[in-house]
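Reply to thread "Modeling small-molecule complexes from scratch"

Following up on the discussion above, here's a worked example others can learn from. I took a protein sequence and the SMILES for adenosine-5'-triphosphate and predicted the complex. Inputs first:
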Amino acid sequence: MVNMNDSPTPMPKLDLGPEDNAFAQGGNRLCFIHPDDPVKCVKTLRKDRLPELKQKEKGLKGRLRKRSSFDDNQQEYSTFLRIADLYGPSALKFIPRCYGMVATNHGPGLVTDLIRDFDGAISMTLKQYVWIHGDTPRVKNCIAAFQQSWESIGLPSRNLLLHNIVVQLSAPDVICRLVVIDGLGWADVLPFGWWSRTLARAKAARKAERLNEAIEALLDIRRTNGEWGYHGWMEPAQRYAGVGERPASEQEK
Ligand SMILES: Nc1ncnc2c1ncn2[C@@H]1O[C@H](COP(=O)(O)OP(=O)(O)OP(=O)(O)O)[C@@H](O)[C@H]1O
Ligand SMILES: [Mg+2]
């Protein structure tokens, strides 16, 4: 018999360690390796980018929107659920699998696959890959194949940004897939793409096509010795954290 005076035991929080344990951070979130499973990633909101702060920044316009719409983790979680429901396993070649939300010492954390290369390194962003290797025929072929599949499935995304896509390698310099790790979902006020697959495909095609311009723009910056910018770079020490011995070629970089 349940004693109504018993308060439910709270679930212990997943301890991610201090903030600087994060292997990467974006403009909104900190990304940690799951302490119990090194092929999973836990994302928490940055303390300076909490939904209430973001809502305040937007002034009156912000107050007209629900606070949860400023929570990147909640938004992404519902998008993952919706994609799984509508698109099934075909989407999982291009996006990480999502395992839900957990309580952590840094607030609610979204758990997804952590994309790693053949040698255990956390895969680098497309932005970093292109910056280092240029748009080689291999990269071009891979992007073309990605664009075709992204369009034919009609996957929902905001503009596809080079720092929100990672390049997974199955052997040195062999790209097995591009994975979109952030920026999923339709950004429209009335997101009809969720209800019409034809519209979704047309929108997905436009987003995917724009990758070519983004790559050109990045290579222009590199050619003119411009600034890398804030997003998407990971040092080998971050990419190989906890992997042990790393290849000599990576140690030199
Ligand atoms: N599942 C993953 N697998 C591998 N690397 C990842 C994964 N998720 C995130 N990363 C790395 O962490 C970085 C930051 O993650 P993410 O883009 O999710 O943060 P964010 O704060 O939401 O970004 P933004 O600034 O675009 O809002 C990425 O650029 C990527 O290098
Ligand atoms: Mg991002």
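What I'd highlight from this example: DSSP finds eight helices and eight strands in the chain. The longest strand covers residues 37-45. Questions welcome below.
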